[in-house]
Amino acid sequence: MAIEVEKAFMGGLGAERVLLDPGSREKLSKDFYWYSPVLEKKLHDKLADSIILPQSEEEVVKVLEIAYAHQVPVTVRGAGTGNYGQAVPLEGGIVLDLSKLDRIVEWGERWARVQCGVRLGILEREARERDMELRIYPSTYMKATVGGYVCGGSGGIGSITWGDLWDGNVLEATVYTMEEQPRKMTICGQELHAYIHNYGTTGILTELMIPLAPKTEWTQSIVFFEDFMKSMEFCSTLSHDDSIRKRLVSPHEWPIPSFFRPLKKVIRQEQAAVLLETEEGTLSQVTELARTYGER
Length: 296
Ligand SMILES: Cc1cc2nc3c(=O)[nH]c(=O)nc-3n(C[C@H](O)[C@H](O)[C@H](O)COP(=O)(O)OP(=O)(O)OC[C@H]3O[C@@H](n4cnc5c(N)ncnc54)[C@H](O)[C@@H]3O)c2cc1C
Known about the structure:
By secondary structure, the chain is α+β, with helices and mostly antiparallel strands. It has helices at residues 3-13, 22-28, 37-43, 57-69, 120-129, 146-152, 159-162, 228-240, 283-292; strands spanning 18-19, 50-52, 74-77, 94-97, 104-108, 111-115, 132-134, 172-176, 184-188, 204-214, 218-225, 246-252, 272-279.
């Protein structure tokens, strides 16, 4: 990137929020793309020319204006936990790291308005203090940002009850376009589908309104089956049984459970394992149902 472009970004935001050192560029140009042996080969040498760290919506607009004027490619980043290279800059340019836009703006009855860089784990903790909780979240929720999840994720824990991101789990988004004068748009309803899971290619999301569920106390359990098909039948019945509230019904055929290292002591050899999160007080009902499908 030309020196005059670097200077333009530094002039706009201050030198300390334009990272040019090789360590930061390497670290913040990467996500979990290396899970894929195909992407590992293709993306390992991709690098941004600089990392830009705005702290407000106004600064995001400033960065977009400068990037547009100098025709610099922009790759948006939340926490970089995406696992197919969505946050890796393919053509250099800047990584626009939005993790400093991390303010919870407003609480409502069963919703929260947040800046895009708020971590889902923090939102869950704060929501629970207000007798609410996230409807759905990815397994990376302690690190992942709300904006990154909406733009790069799909579903996760809670989806068994609430569906995926497209199923009413985003209420509104503030979106900026990539133009000479970035336009601010407020998007809701069906129009959100153009921004969900689109990797920031249709716009940069700075603020989101997320629906919340009433707080529930959950219990985690594991059920084992000799026969994987029986475990699937159990999961299907449990998933359709509205008398048991649940956040997770996750069946795994052997040998997948053998890879769950933190659970090594409890996993049973050669058996299918169903990981569950159901409402506190439902374990006896779950056990009874599992027995009818041959649980061991
Ligand atoms: C072990 C593991 C488990 C995972 N489990 C799940 C899961 O259960 N469910 C699931 O859906 N995903 C899962 N993921 C994928 C990923 O962690 C999540 O989708 C996560 O929510 C991404 O958030 P992030 O802040 O890290 O986003 P990033 O990885 O930083 O970004 C994701 C994409 O969104 C774009 N982006 C980020 N912020 C914005 C913004 N404000 N405006 C516009 N574009 C933006 C980025 O350019 C990128 O294309 C998993 C990944 C790993 C490694």
